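agent: user wants the structure for Corrinoid adenosyltransferase from Blastopirellula sediminis. delegating to structure tool.
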Amino acid sequence: MKIYTKSGDAGETGLYRGGRVRKDDRRIVAIGDVDELNALLGIVHSLAASPEIAGPILLIQSELFGLGAQIASPDPTAAGTTLLGNEAIERLEQTIDLAESQLTPLSAFILPGGSTLGAHLHQARAVCRRAERHLVAFFDGKLDEPAHVALRYLNRLGDLLFVLARWSNQLAGHAETEWRPTTK
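agent: tool returned. relaying tokens verbatim.
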């Protein structure tokens, strides 16, 4: 099978198990953000030497691939798409708690950056927040249980990526840079 089908040359793409939409459709924008986040997490995983960071990232990448399929399915249940569950959110929360237990509490806003891994985790957090915003726009207030779980998952994932950025910077010996308002 060839990688190119030419079916998207006119600005449309196929959905999983049914229908075609424009490539700027809210659904496709949300899928694109989740895909970009997943690709960025591939970079994060390649840089992560610590199993406490690399392990969760690999599982999250798999879950994001499933989330993309869920979003791409007009009827995820009929398509047999695996849906994210509350256990995935609970696992993210447990990982947040573990990472936070290794950090000093924040007393100020910090600037994104630090080590290469930390900077990529901060970037992943920002992409995750964009994916979350675009998923909200796609759902347009129609939140069944799978949609609600998907939004909670991305919200918690953004929190986790922030904490992992801090933790990875601490492990690399990079001090956090506190934000200071600029003066006139």
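agent: one observation worth passing along. The mean pLDDT is 92.
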